[in-house]
Amino acid sequence: MNSAIRAQRRALIRERVRADGFVRASALAEEFGVSVMTIHRDLDALQAQGWLARVRGGATSVPSRTFHGDIAQRRSAMAPAKRALARAAASLVRPGDTVMLDESTTCLHLAERFAERAPLTVITYFQPVVTMLAGVPGITLIALGGEYFPAYDAFLGLYTAEGVAKVRADTVFMSTTAIARNRCYHQSQATVQVKRVMMTSASRRVLMVDHTKFTRQGLYALAPLTDFDLVLVDDGLSAVEQRRIRDSGATLTVVPLRS
Questions:
Q1: Are 81 and 211 in contact (CB under 8 A)?
Q2: Residue 234 backbone class (left: φ over 0; alpha: ψ -120 to 50; beta: rest)
Q3: pLDDT, tens digit, 9 for 90 and up, residues 71-99
Q4: How far is CA 7 from each of CA 44, 50, 93, 110, rounded to the nearest angstrom?
């Protein structure tokens, strides 16, 4: 019974933060008749699931340098740049390839182009891609399970990582939450756990990032840019940052925005 009450309370907190943008822990404690410490534990759990970001005094759902937003917010952010990156990435795919996609919304744009590249084998744990490609002629779809994270609309964690380790792809396409000092970061340990295995399970590793990722912050380090065979970024990235990436030894392609 206690676990059911806790789950219901956290669902209500999640919706409140989404609706209001910011909530105070003290106000939530009073509303639900629990201690502030209990609310802090609720907020910690919701942050780990990707629903919100802890801030001083409470929590917020507003995207920021440290919080990228939930799946709905990420889908709407930087859409033209993501489409351009997807177009460039699609040119790297050949009929007969086996490709692996992460849970990034940039990969969702890439998946939209796969029908024209068929036949392909596509491996993913991202539910929107599974829904999009299920039943598409010429697409062999391998969907990986694990623990479901609603905020990412994806399966992540240990069991997903184990599933990734059992397959092999020609190319893995992925994105990242933040890039600082030529290193990729994420806010979720479960995400990093899966993506590290993805990088060892493909012959070629392609990173797709819009230029705003270079202004964000992340908690858990994934990999340096030099661990990728190719980094694709839109032309909004400054010349100084482009030079810094190339000087690090990473292979960078700048993708122009066009209709």
A1: yes
A2: beta
A3: 666 666 778 999 999 999 999 999 999 99
A4: 13, 16, 43, 35
